[in-house]
Amino acid sequence: MLSSSDFVSASWELIVRVDDPNEEEQKDVTLRVSGDLHVGGVMLKLVEQIKISQDWSDFALWWEQKHCWLLKTHWTLDKYGVQADAKLLFTPQHKILRLRLPNVKTVRLRVSFSAVVFKAVSDICKILNIRRSEELSLLKPSGDYFKKKKKKDKSNKEPIIEDILNLEGSPTTAGPPVSPGLYSKTMTPTYDPISGTPASSTMTWFSDSPLTEQNCSILAFSQPPQSPEALADMYQPRSLVDKAKLNAGWLDSSRSLMEQGIQEDEQLLLRFKYYTFFDLNPKYDAVRINQLYEQARWAILLEEIDCTEEEMLIFAALQYHISKLSLSAETQDFTNESEVDEVEAALSNLEVTLEGGRTDNTLEDITDIPKLADNLKLFRPKKLMLKAFKQYWFIFKDTSIAYFKNKELEQGEPIEKLNLRGCEVVPDVNVAGRKFGIKLLIPVADGMNEVYLRCDHENQYAQWMAACILASKGKTMADSSYQPEVLNILSFLRMKNRNVSSQVASNLESMDMNPECFVSPRCAKKQKSKQLAARILEAHQNVAQMPLVEAKLRFIQAWQSLPEFGLTYYLVRFKGSKKDDILGVSYNRLIRIDATTGIPITTWRFTNMKQWNVNWEIRQVAIEFDQNVSIAFTCLSADCKIVHEYIGGYIFLSTRSKDQNETLDEDLFHKLTGGQE
């Protein structure tokens, strides 16, 4: 027994394990402390007792039993509830992490294991020079994800996993953020907007960063295509339920890596989680655009998203084009780019702003909402009935379509008026077969009404399709995004145009790449290699003149135009239901989907949402919409916090505007995604 004269009666012994990376094994240090000693004092005592002269500033205390960091150094041990039985670890906050990027490259870098994931991802994106870090997050895949790839890689002699880009010497993680210039709105462009190569001035920004010129090009340029064998190994046909299981691994943005059981040197996936890509600018976003393109490319190749054969060939042609241009761009000298006069650029922007830019009749748009009027064909599916389209006179105004028997009757009552706000709009197009259809799924009280419209030609289709897409979001044709949407649709249709020429035959002889590399394995099996190559080259003629960055952006736009784009699936059980359903979460809506048939049952728009919260006891997400509509569901394929964070995250991203500077309201993000009312 110790006498009270030797020690203060309130003091007790605390054992702290020291995790010093410079030492081979951890060692225990015993301290005599009292409950009113603050955490900073404990750390000071600890360092004095270790008697090793080094920089301890990155070290902090981790409480193993409670699974939390003791980061509030002014708090006392009593306030934290630390007693003699506590197992504390004195460990660096920044540790090595391996991240698999969307382009299948692995980077090794030092990341904060004590900051919440939202902040850690922000720091990672600064190192990698990816703007808008809020769109990305970290995904922990299922246990066999990397093992399977390693085994396959060995058999194919393709060292994907071993090919690691080492950025662990990064000075950015513990210090100030990298290169504030990369985030400045008035800076000289960081990349050439045509080729995506770093502008010569960019290299001065990278001088204090691990992103050297070579590393930058690895991240900003597309990787050579995988062999068809490697693709076949990675490909797995997935049902909606399988896709739902893949999304269970997203990390909680409001907790740290250490709190979520992530180990040092563990491998995670860095992915674009939210499908709203804000302010994509080729001058600053070469890495971001390339990684987005790569994520889209793999989603198409591995059929994580469905597309038609015609669309698959367009994606293949763009990939072929991009891989050819990337090979030639990598051999160019980075320093040949012309300097841009920053002040001149700013002045010309100001001039455009003061003059009002293009002479759009904005006031006219506000007072006079445009309308479309034309003959279209309509079909409503009914059981045991063939697809018989019937012609009517259609008028599209505001966000509604009304149709009449003929033009002469348009002043009277319409046969039916369809309100498209909140509907699903699906293209039903085959350019080669001259079929330009629009499938509308219109929400009604007991589910969805299915309506098919058929247009006569590309221009008519582009105008009506763009109007339907805007109306589904609650916007009219007066909105400034209408004309760009029309042009987007037209350019995508033109890419689908098949124009056979003698040039295809001659190119076929000189085609130096395997056509099976550019399509999904299932698509490759359907036709012979030579036939597939001919069709890819045929589609390539429509994009052959595109510069590299524009081709990547066009690929991303084509991906965004697919009906399933941006849907993240979860297996749920709705309150009152006896069977499981799939919940699709998108940037602007939730969709209830039948798990067996894959057919949408109901859609709910975020714009109609009044409030949402989680009952943590029964792990149930409850959402209230306008007009007394409320839903509640439990998540079966993932933790309910993941789904809740997705909804709150999309609402947070919808608050961004170009007027803001690029600093994010992190508190608002946590408020919207945290799960409290």
Automatic annotation (TrEMBL):
Q: Main localization of the protein?
A: other
Q: Which Pfam families does the UniProt record give? A: FERM_M (PF00373), Kindlin_2_N (PF18124)
| A GO CC annotation given for this chain | cell periphery
Q: Which domain of life is it from?
A: Eukaryota
- Which GO biological process categories is it annotated with? basement membrane organization; cell-matrix adhesion; establishment of epithelial cell polarity; integrin-mediated signaling pathway; keratinocyte migration; keratinocyte proliferation; negative regulation of canonical Wnt signaling pathway; negative regulation of gene expression
Q: Where are the transmembrane segments?
A: none
From the Swiss-Prot or TrEMBL record, what is one GO molecular function term? integrin binding
Write down the SMART domains for this protein, in alphabetical order. Answer: B41, PH
PROSITE patterns according to UniProt: PH_DOMAIN
Positions of the PH domain: 377-473
Question: Which keywords describe this protein according to UniProt?
Answer: Cell adhesion, Cell junction, Cell projection
> Among its keywords, does the record have Kinase?
no
Subcellular localization is given as: Cell junction; Cell projection
Q: Which family does it belong to?
A: Belongs to the kindlin family.
Can you say what this protein is called? Fermitin family homolog 1
User: Which taxonomic lineage is given here?
Assistant: Eukaryota, Metazoa, Chordata, Craniata, Vertebrata
